[in-house]
Amino acid sequence: MWAVDGTWERVFTTLMAQADAEDDLNWAVSVDSTIVRAHQRAAGARKKGPQPASPTTTPSDGPAAG
Q1: Using CA atoms, how far apart are residues 23 and 51, in angstroms rounded to an integer?
Q2: Chain CA centroid to CA 15, Å
Q3: pLDDT tens digit string along 24-37?
Q4: How far is the C-alpha of 38 from the C-alpha of 30, rounded, in Å?
Q5: Basic residues compositional bias: what residue ranges (predicted)?
Q6: How far apart (Å, rounded) are the C-alpha atoms in residues 25 and 12?
Q7: Could you give the 3-state DSSP secondary structure of residue 24?
Q8: Cα(36)–Cα(11) distance, integer angstroms
Q9: Could you read off the pLDDT of 36-65 as tens digits, one per residue?
Q10: What is the DSSP string of 13-66?
Q11: Could you tell me which residues come within 8 angstroms of residue 14 by beta carbon, excluding any fewer than 6 positions away?
Q12: CB 42 within 8 A of CB 36
């Protein structure tokens, strides 16, 4: 309800203005792989649905060389 009526936006704006006035803002941002992950398809996961068939192996007509 507070997000819909803009309460959180006003609280955030007020806190940011206060911190800026006191020179207390620090915009250090840390990102690592535990937070930002690749989509499962980007990581090589199998896709749902039918898989392409493996090429069939055709035996030779003659005996194996050897």
Answers
A1: 58
A2: 30
A3: 777 777 766 666 66
A4: 17
A5: 40-49
A6: 13
A7: coil
A8: 27
A9: 667 766 766 666 666 666 667 666 666 665
A10: HHHHHHHHHTT---------TTTS---TTTTTPPPSSPPPPPPPP---SSPPP-
A11: none
A12: no
SS3 category, 12: helix
Using an 8 Å Cβ cutoff, are 2 and 8 in contact? yes
Both tokens of 13, joined, read 């704006």
Residue 40: CA count within 13 A, CB half-sphere: 4
The C-alpha angle with vertex 38 and arms to 33 and 40, in degrees rounded to 5, equals 130
Joined tokens for residue 29: 């941002």
Global pTM?
0.37
Burial class (CB in 10 A: 0-12, 13-18, 19+), 4: exposed
